[in-house]
Design a protein that fits this description.
Elements lengths: L1 H12 L25 H6 L6 H6 L5 H16 L2 E13 L5 E13 L3 E8 L3 E6 L3 E6 L4 E6 L4 H12 L6 H4 L3 H6 L2 E12 L2 E10 L2 E8 L6 E8 L7 E10 L18 E3 L4 H4 L1
Parallel strand pairs: 6-12
Antiparallel strand pairs: 1-2, 1-11, 2-3, 3-4, 4-5, 5-6, 7-8, 8-9, 9-10, 10-11
Length: about 280
């Protein structure tokens, strides 16, 4: 399931060193712990959850599944769209201290075979282009770029980048055409929490549990049921690090030119090669 890979890769991205835009995959600086004998016992000690919500976790509620599927069907029907997002990611140091990194993301999607994602972090600014034939990662600050031949669709390319060069497209699990299947592949329980507001927008709040992660999602309560917030908690890692993604400025009424997804190297920028996952290992 890509969800687990995404959690790990997003967490690692805060530690990865950009050496001319070559991305290395390294091990997490965190320590696994064994789950308690009873998850329900642990949950019952959490004052923020009442007994009614605890009872709901015994199975996957049909309403939670329906709303998630509704979001997936809506997103899958959109041929072009753009969004803005902010991602916060926890890193657990060997001392046990939790450090949070923040990145912002701007995305443009044109199905079936184009995307352009801009990533801004404290120590780097990157652009990721996919034009249906090649993927290019451009490091604006270091003035290097690397390109690699890619498959012919967005879905295939997202997985290809993970497997070959260790790149995780930001928010890939949610912008993919089959996000429902990916998200639900190892879910053990889930329920509908209720209505709440995210930045003034009324949303359906859903909560799910999988073997290694708990995750929550807020879906806009409108005729454009897009994702407004998403939290993943790695519950069996000391400190329970989280990745939180907040989404804004969804635009489903757009008409991108193909030029949006074509990288043209600026003057003074040098080309290098990607280091593959196999080579890095």
């Amino acid at each position: 399931m890509r969800l687990k890979q995404t959690v790990g890769s997003i967490t690692l991205s805060s530690k990865a060193v950009l050496m001319g835009i070559i991305i290395f995959l390294t091990a997490c600086n965190s320590y696994a712990i064994q789950p308690p004998e009873s998850e329900n016992k642990s949950l019952s000690q959490t004052s923020s959850l009442n007994s009614e919500l605890l009872d709901k976790q015994a199975a996957i509620e049909s309403e939670a599944v329906r709303l998630l599927k509704q979001m997936n069907d809506f997103m899958a029907s959109q041929t072009q769209f753009s969004f803005q997002g902010e991602i916060t990611s926890d890193e657990i140091l060997p001392t046990g201290q939790k450090i949070q990194s923040i990145s912002s993301v701007n995305g443009a999607i044109k199905r079936p075979d184009k995307f352009h994602v801009e990533i801004h972090e404290q120590d780097k600014d990157q652009d990721l282009y996919y034009n249906g034939k090649t993927v290019t990662l451009y490091g604006k600050r270091v003035k290097y770029y690397a390109s690699i031949d890619a498959p012919s669709t967005i879905g295939e390319t997202i997985q290809f980048l993970i497997d070959s060069v260790g790149i995780v497209v930001p928010m890939a699990d949610l912008i993919g055409k089959y996000s429902h299947d990916v998200l639900m592949s190892d879910v053990e329980s889930g329920f509908y929490v209720g209505l709440s507001e995210i930045n003034g927008i009324e949303c359906h709040h859903l909560a799910f549990r999988a073997d290694e992660t708990d995750w929550q999602i807020w879906i806009e309560n409108s005729d454009t049921p897009s994702v407004r917030k998403f939290i993943i908690t790695s519950k069996w890692i000391t400190g329970a690090p989280q990745v939180t993604a907040s989404y804004s400025d969804w635009n489903f009424d757009t008409n991108f030119s193909d030029k949006e997804f074509m990288f043209v190297a600026p003057e003074g920028v040098s080309k290098i090669e990607f280091m593959t996952v196999k080579t890095a290992n």
